[in-house]
Amino acid sequence: MDAKLLKGMNEHLKLEFKASHEYRAMSVWLSANDLPGFATWMRQQSADELMHAQKFIDHMVERDQKAVLPAVAQPPSSWKTVEALCTHVLQNEQAVTASINNLYAMAEAAKDRPAIVLLQWFVNEQMEEEAAARAILGRIRLGGTTGVGLLMIDQELAKGAMPGMPASPDAGGAQ
Length: 175
Ligand SMILES: [Fe+2]
Ligand SMILES: [Fe+2]
What we know:
Elements: H1 3-32, H2 36-62, H3 82-109, H4 113-143, H5 147-158
One fe (ii) ion (FE2) binds near residues 49 and 52.
């Protein structure tokens, strides 16, 4: 594999692990603040980020390249508001998208087709993740910065009815 691309993939691992760690910390804080729907959403996001990191690791290992796990900093343990938390999620996702686009350009320059195929999956994934974060943030800004509005959004998230995304097959079923 192209040395620059390999280095870039290893550097990208850090963003995925950092996001996973932060999202898990957010989930803890959201649970403590009586928002179980938001907490479940962030816990799932945390698991997804680990799966993303593993996808890159598997790709490198399968190609007999060296994957190096990064150190991960301690995440924050509290946020001022749910809106601030969700704003941070969106910024995180935008930073990951920028890194994916950068890797994609490197893979194209190196004519590395397996890497291009891998990164194509991530291009779509990032589009969905940004859309979900933006949709939830939009709903918070519409009427969920406090009290009842926030509780309503929390209930939607608890049902798996993610704004901006198709509902899961069992969402909205028997309650
Ligand atoms: Fe990710
Ligand atoms: Fe993500």
